[in-house]
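Running this now, will post back.
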Amino acid sequence: MLNGLWLAFFLIAALAALYQWLFLGDAEVFARLVASLFDMAELSVSLMILLFGTLTLWLGFLRIAEAAGLIELLGRLLTPLFRRLMPGVPAGHPALGLITLNFAANGLGLDNAATPIGLRAMHALQSLNPDPKTATNAQILFLVLNASSLTVLPVTIFMYRAQQGAADPTLVFLPILLATSASSLVGLLSVAVMQRLRLHDPVVLAWLGGVAVILGGFMAILASLSTVAIAAVSSLLGNLALFGIIIAFLLAGAWKRVAVYECFVEGAKEGFEISRNLLPYLVAMLCAIGVLRASGALDAGLEIIRWLVLNAGLDGRFVDALPTALVKPFSGSAARAMLIETMQTHGVDSFPALVAATVQGSTETTFYVLAVYFGAVGVQRARHTVGCALLADLAGVVAAIAVCYWIFG
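Update: finished.
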């Protein structure tokens, strides 16, 4: 799917450029295409410089959290909830612990640990599957929640904003938190309806009620503030949460007598390796998006959508953020390239860039997640997985747009 998407970007750009030349007399369009290729290649290297530092730093601290047992602790706390949401999984089954560890790792942004743990969880769930080629209810719920984007600390979004010169990279922390909560809630409710889960169970109600109270409290406080004050609160919470979690990791490591410095360096080495391996993907996608923009094809598509939105009587400022939303279910690298391109074109703190960053942090690469996890265990019949996951993605996009209009106006 990614091969076809990448090739399509270049072919559409080529057709659009030919149209500009043959019908509009714009002979300079090919010069813009070539210049865009070199500009985006240069931008990819600039991004990698910051990516090296950010991932090295963050994975170093996360390795301390792992060694201190914080991931395992979060897993134990979530086990009672998932025992009720997945009644087909026996109490004490290894899959429950692996599932909770996967979600805990995702919540902390520990993607490199979350994926292998998630694959182990899928294999454990597959051992309970009476029809190995058809997804079970537990597997569907697990994947839909994974595809609804559970990351609480979107460190990579902060990094991209910092690289593009944002005065406050964490400004989008609160919008992302609210939008990803909406995405995950819709994902859970859609699966609950399809599978007739007992959401009125006291433990489930306690968890959902607790989350609702926290988010409701946030909303009530924000409703009483001005737009400027809301942006300031989002900035404060983002920076406070990020630095507070780092201090918590260090204190937990010291309490457990972890050699925090050596542990940090070990994790940082892994971050360096991951960063280095990402450069070819960044170059590939950013160059494809660059020629799509330079050919005029991307702008033409957005203008059609903008015309439809404006004729419906709606504000059209969010339209420039839609490329990120449209490609995110198919490719994380393409969505990341779209986000960076939006920041480059409109400004890192422009309304479209803020919406795009919020969308990027509150949605997931649905088809990639489904392909990897189902492919790993040989499941071919996904049942209602795709529909519920895409509904969660849609909720994340709509919530991201609505929250950004509310906070940033």
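The first helix runs from residue 2 to 22. More later if anyone needs it.
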